[in-house]
């Protein structure tokens, strides 16, 4: 199946060969991978990329017309696999070795663009924040600046950010925090007021920069400009940890309840919760949103194989608005962002 930029819900996606520019340790088990990509299409917070995580396999993924990694590779290119033929550029080691052969999905955590000029092409730097949990993320951990990285993207449907939102409440848990950083940037650009609630099991598993210049995180939930990733946009934030090692002791939904309790009816009507994190946390957030009648969008992190609507490994039960019958939806192409009330948790 050729993989090429296609029109999907008005957005282009493609197969890109980027260059790793940084792979920075953030906190225990968490890294920020920065990849420079030429002509990466417009993307939205909540969208993700399917990354080939094995350092060795990047060579195998280079198409036939790229003679070597040193030769110019187009910014995006088609994989020219023929049906009923083995992929020509993938060798045995690729399938049987210790490396991850299926791509892994990662949310876009940020992007910085340098526009095209008369003499240069458009270049963008993409950030991905990942936690090392298995074969694929161990492969990513070993990537070094200068190495080539194959990625497919931008994939899926991102958050629906309409201008009448106010305020936006970003709720991120664990590896659900990265898309919130990108979302904060876009909300700031659209001049939408926001606050962020970020939760982790323990302080050392929080991939965020807590600025000492802004004072210590409050033990009782009080929004403050403490977390750099949100403070740079003027957005206050609050931290929760399950064990109380930083900020509010308990779940992020506890803080959310406190915030919404203090909101007026009018504020609740205008507010929108944007949530990403482990399924139990998103389910609990959806329940809090329903209790206070606040709109809520969730970005599901269902395990995925293809990421492009082919393998059906990412199905969820979805209740179309106003209908009694539920249907299956694909997290990768129908989502990963859905309205919380439409998901059968
Ligand atoms: C749309 C989307 C966006 C994502 N964004 C990020 C991100 O920004 N940062 C990040 O660190 N991770 C993110 N993830 C999760 C990430 O894809 C997995 O952590 C990664 O695929 C694990 O690969 P691995 O080979 O290291 O682990 P594996 O060896 O494949 O798995 C190790 C263990 O983790 C479990 N596991 C794997 N994937 C998931 C999952 N999605 N949910 C729950 N358990 C899982 C496996 O069942 C296994 O027990 C995202 C997932 C999706 C679907
Ligand atoms: S991941 Fe293959 S269909 Fe969704």
> Helix/strand/pairing class, anyone?
alpha/beta
CATH architecture of the largest domain: Beta Barrel
The span between the termini is 33 Å
CATH topology of the largest domain: Elongation Factor Tu (Ef-tu), domain 3
Report what the structure shows.
The protein is an alpha/beta fold and 345 residues long. It folds into two domains: 7-155, Elongation Factor Tu (Ef-tu), domain 3; 168-301, Nucleotide-binding domain of ferredoxin-NADP reductase (FNR) module (Rossmann fold), CATH 3.40.50. Helix content is 18%, strand content 28%. The longest helix is centred in the C-terminal third of the chain and has 13 residues, at 279-291. The chain is globular. The protein starts with 6 loop residues before the first strand and ends in a 6-residue tail after the last strand. Bound molecules: flavin-adenine dinucleotide (FAD) and FE2/S2 (inorganic) cluster. Flavin-adenine dinucleotide (FAD) is lined by residues 48, 100, 104-107, 129-131, 133-137, 175, 178, 301-304, 336.
Supply the key terms:
seven-stranded mixed β-sheet; single chain; alpha/beta; binds flavin-adenine dinucleotide; 18 strands; seven-stranded antiparallel β-sheet; binds FE2/S2 (inorganic) cluster; Rossmann fold; 8 helices
């Amino acid at each position: 199946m050729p993989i090429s930029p296609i029109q999907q819900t008005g957005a282009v996606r493609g197969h890109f060969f980027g260059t790793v520019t940084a792979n920075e340790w953030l906190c225990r088990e968490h890294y920020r991978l920065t990849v420079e990509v030429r002509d990466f299409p417009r993307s939205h917070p909540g969208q993700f990329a399917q990354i080939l995580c094995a350092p060795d396999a990047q060579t195998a993924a280079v198409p036939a017309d790229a003679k070597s990694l040193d030769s110019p590779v187009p910014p995006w290119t088609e994989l020219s696999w023929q049906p009923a033929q083995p992929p020509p550029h993938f060798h045995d080691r690729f399938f049987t070795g210790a490396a991850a052969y299926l791509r892994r999905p990662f949310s876009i955590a940020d992007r910085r663009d340098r526009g095209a000029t008369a003499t240069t092409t458009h270049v963008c730097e993409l950030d991905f924040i990942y936690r090392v949990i298995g074969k694929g993320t161990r492969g990513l951990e070993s990537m070094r600046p200068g190495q080539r990285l194959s990625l497919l993207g931008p994939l899926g449907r991102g958050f629906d950010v309409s201008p009448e939102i106010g305020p936006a409440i970003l709720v991120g848990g664990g590896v659900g925090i990265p898309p919130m950083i990108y979302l904060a940037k876009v909300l700031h650009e659209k001049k939408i007021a926001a606050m962020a609630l970020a939760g982790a099991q323990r302080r050392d598993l929080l991939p965020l920069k807590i600025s000492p210049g802004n004072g210590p995180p409050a033990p009782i939930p009080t929004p403050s400009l403490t977390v750099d990733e949100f403070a740079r946009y003027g957005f206050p934030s609050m931290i929760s940890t399950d064990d109380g090692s930083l900020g509010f002791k308990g779940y992020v939904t506890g803080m959310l309840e406190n915030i919404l309790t203090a909101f007026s009816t009018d504020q609740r009507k205008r507010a929108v919760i944007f949530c990403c994190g482990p399924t139990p946390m998103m389910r609990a957030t959806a329940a809090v949103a329903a209790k206070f009648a606040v709109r809520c969008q969730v970005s599901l992190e269902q395990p995925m194989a293809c990421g492009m609507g082919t393998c059906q490994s990412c199905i969820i039960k979805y209740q179309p608005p106003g209908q009694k019958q539920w249907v299956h939806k694909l997290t990768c192409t129908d989502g990963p962002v859905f309205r919380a009330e439409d998901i059968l948790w």
